[in-house]
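REQUEST ID: PR-0412
SUBMITTED BY: lab tech R.K.
PRIORITY: routine
TASK: structure prediction, single protein chain
INPUT:
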Amino acid sequence: MRLNRFLAASGFGSRRACEALIREGKISINGHFIRDLATIVNPGDDVRVAGKPPLRPAAPAYILLHKPKGIVCTRSDERGRPTILDLVPGHFGRLFHVGRLDKESEGLILLTNDGALSHRLTHPAHEVEKEYEVLLDRPFAAQEIPKLLRGFVIEGGRGRMERVQIVAPSIVKVVLRQGIKRQIRLMFLKLGYEVKRLIRTRIGDLSIGTLRPGEWRALDKREVALLKGEDTRRS
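STATUS: complete
OUTPUT:
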């Protein structure tokens, strides 16, 4: 197994993040520090990061979590606030979140130790759909929909929405393929609306279903294959 894949499987982030660790000379194999990205890890090799105890690839973990409001998306918080990793058992080992939801937002978030899948789901080239239910501070005017679909400049870039559907006077369902920070809140704010509640209800083919805030479940093999873009008809 290539070293970057080995590190990703051990929970050290995406392959790109692991490649950075290698280039910085922080990885040793059998006592020798390695900078060659093409290095192969063989069974029984002693692989360490910054001299810490040897790594062993963790079993792949794919966790779907319903993040409650007030929880932050980080491994640890310097202000002592509860994090999404406080909501899942520790036996899964080192997990990282795919994308994020701000502290005031709720809904689906994926936790995994699969760096390759994380890269696929967050890279703009793959355009994975994410669906949200948005509660606004006042009824939404249908004539604003074309503006959201065409897009406009907000802090962080040019934001646009793929689909917009009015569910109730002040409730809108939107679909994104982008990942600009606080995109939905900023786009509605620019049109004069304040987002009072924001819930992510779908990531790709995965829906929130019956998961309640704070609950999680492990994905099955078919769901993982769908996220990876694999053909599930053969299984």
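NOTES: The longest helix spans residues 15-23.
REVIEWED BY: pending
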